[in-house]
Write a structure and sequence with these properties.
Layout (H helix, E strand, L loop, with lengths): L1 H17 L6 H15 L2 E2 L11 E5 L2 E3 L13 E10 L2 E10 L5 H19 L7 H14 L3 E2 L5 E3 L6 E5 L17 E4 L2 E3 L5 E3 L6 E3 L5 E3 L2 E6 L2 E4 L4
Antiparallel strand pairs: 1-4, 2-4, 3-12, 4-5, 6-10, 7-8, 7-9, 9-14, 10-13, 11-12, 14-15
Helix pairs in contact: 1-2, 3-4
The structure holds 2-amino-4-trifluoromethylsulfanyl-butyric acid and cobalt (II) ion (CO).
Length: about 240
């Protein structure tokens, strides 16, 4: 799990360096493909429930599951890149949001709040805590900053499959039962946050999720492991 996720982190770093005005998200897809070959890992998303690409590239009002395409990125765009791979049967999954060139104050704030929300969630990923302590920490932080957590998509357990139990929502569900966290669990925690709404619509392509009000959205994701000494972030270089 550590190696799978380290490789995802290395690839996302490379993509971040490339993501400049004028480049297309399909260029990023091609780079990701060649890096997967280089690291001898299998991309996890392509073919998953029919998803057609290695990357999800979601720009501005797109929340998640955006298709890489031939439209050049523009100065001021807010780009979220999500990637999963399989290494020796184990899955890595992570996402980052990057500003393209100079971005607006609002976009920067949204991106910073979403990343920070991920870290306040990870902080609660401790043996003995309730699963929804993670959810509550994320939701409270995001809402205290005046933004909205997306409800339609959630984080998840991860291991020898991309999506395992339990779901890890970024909000506390109604009638939330108690799920006690234990050392050895590996979770993908992934806040998706929007400026104006918690609701999404799915575009004609059946995948791309956009905010209902077309306000900006951001997405950060880490795969973490819960240990006796607290959480360890696996998806880092
Ligand atoms: N990071 C997302 C997730 O964990 C991406 C899934 S895209 C898909 O669910 F194509 F694999 F569905
Ligand atoms: Co995920």
């Amino acid at each position: 799990m550590r190696e799978a996720n380290r490789i995802v982190a290395v690839i996302l770093e490379e993509l971040k360096e490339l993501a400049k005005p004028g480049l297309t998200t399909l260029d990023l897809e091609r780079k990701a493909e060649s890096l997967c070959e280089q690291f001898k890992v299998r991309p996890a998303f392509k073919g998953y429930h029919g998803y057609p690409f290695i990357l999800c590239c979601s720009v501005n009002e797109q929340v998640v599951h955006g298709f890489p395409n031939t439209k050049p990125l523009e100065e001021g765009d807010l780009l979220s890149v999500d990637m999963g791979i399989v290494y020796k049967g184990f899955y890595g999954d992570a996402a980052r949001t990057f500003g393209i060139g100079a971005i607006s104050q609002k976009a920067r704030e949204l991106s910073e709040v979403t990343e920070q929300a991920l870290y306040v969630g990870i902080e609660q990923a401790r043996a003995g805590n309730n699963l929804y302590d993670i959810s509550a920490a994320i939701q409270n932080y995001v809402e205290s900053r005046g933004f909205h957590v997306i409800k339609r998509f959630v984080g998840h357990g991860i291991g020898t499959k991309l999506h395992e139990k339990p779901e890890v929502p970024n909000f506390v569900p109604l009638n939330a039962s108690k799920i006690r966290l234990k050392a050895g669990m590996t979770l993908a925690i992934e806040p998706m946050v929007a400026v104006g709404t918690d609701e999404v619509e799915i575009l004609e392509d059946k995948w791309t999720a956009v905010t209902k009000d077309r306000s900006l959205a951001a997405h950060f994701e880490h795969t973490i492991a819960i240990t006796g000494d607290g959480p360890i972030i696996l998806s880092k270089v």
